[in-house]
Amino acid sequence: MSEIETDIITTVVGGTGHIELNRPKALNALTVDMVHAIDAALQAWESDDAVTRVLLTSASPKAYCAGGDIRAIRDQVVAGEDFTPFFRDEYDMNLRLAEFPKPVIALIDGVNMGGGVGVSIHGSHRVVSEKALIAMPEVAIGFLPDVGATHILGRLPKGFGELMGMTAARIGAGDALAVGLATHFVPSSAMPDVKAALLAGEELDGVLARFGDTAPASTLPLDEIADVFGRDSVTEILAGLATTSGAWADTAREQLSTACPTSVFVTFDLIQASRDRTLAQCLAEEAVVGARLVRRPDFVEGIRAVLIDKTRDPKFSPASMNDVEEREIEALLGA
């Protein structure tokens, strides 16, 4: 057993390279040291014949990973320090995980948001329990879905990626399986058994079949979502949503009411463009556009309202979707 960092524990057992996220008090929010530790393990195991697969798990009973340590980024921004190395290193790690030449299994048994999506959804086997809750909530803090999420969202069923990215929608196990974000369902009570069996060297497909169960039903109306969020512009989407009834539409309107308008427009455009880009190209674009968003006042304000004061009353500028100017979005996108 080798412990690279306190917050990341790595072992090689039963042919399995095991990475355990071990920062439970912070819901495993990723620090730069955690990113480096994960990347170092992946690099070491790529060509190690003793490692036939990689298993990603969490030591937290509540979360797989709640995201990146975005407060630390905010502190760097306020202090005028260079915040870009964290994102650069994180995105390099995301790409390495996605291109890893051996099976990568993530056991998602709880909250999984933002940066956590980057260390799970890129893997070959995304195993969810009924406790799984997947979201890319960055528009709420004046940022964008990153860690390669624009690439992922752009490949979900029509409109679904736009719903997730633009509204920060929280997706449960049934819907994650229905749209392809997840690949397998295992009840939360059986997740420790899956972990133990894989670390004992048992065959992957057999383990997932033995402990798998009937997944929860999908709850979201994919046809309605496609009709509303599959439209050609943010303006058309908002118009369609305004006349759509149902709990999912109510939730989407509520979440959009506190989302950063600029981030919503940027997110829509990046998801559209992602369909003609590779993952590496999407990560590169997220890095450039994300850095521009981080330097805007909306980012610091969003973190204040959501993560620091927790008042959920951000004062974004512009404050309304109607006031977003096309030229500003084009400038952010470098169009």
UniProtKB/TrEMBL annotation:
It is an enzyme of class 3 (hydrolase). GO terms for cellular component: cytosol. GO terms for molecular function: 3-hydroxyisobutyryl-CoA hydrolase activity. It comes from the Bacteria. Its EC number is 3.1.2.4. It catalyses: 3-hydroxy-2-methylpropanoyl-CoA + H2O = 3-hydroxy-2-methylpropanoate + CoA + H(+). Residues 17-332 form the Enoyl-CoA hydratase/isomerase domain. Pfam families: ECH_2. GO terms for biological process: L-valine catabolic process. Transmembrane segments: none annotated. Gene3D superfamilies: 2-enoyl-CoA Hydratase, Chain A, domain 1. InterPro entries: ClpP/crotonase-like_dom_sf (IPR029045), ECH_dom (IPR045004), HIBYL-CoA-H (IPR032259). Keywords: Hydrolase. This is 3-hydroxyisobutyryl-CoA hydrolase. It comes from Tsukamurella tyrosinosolvens.
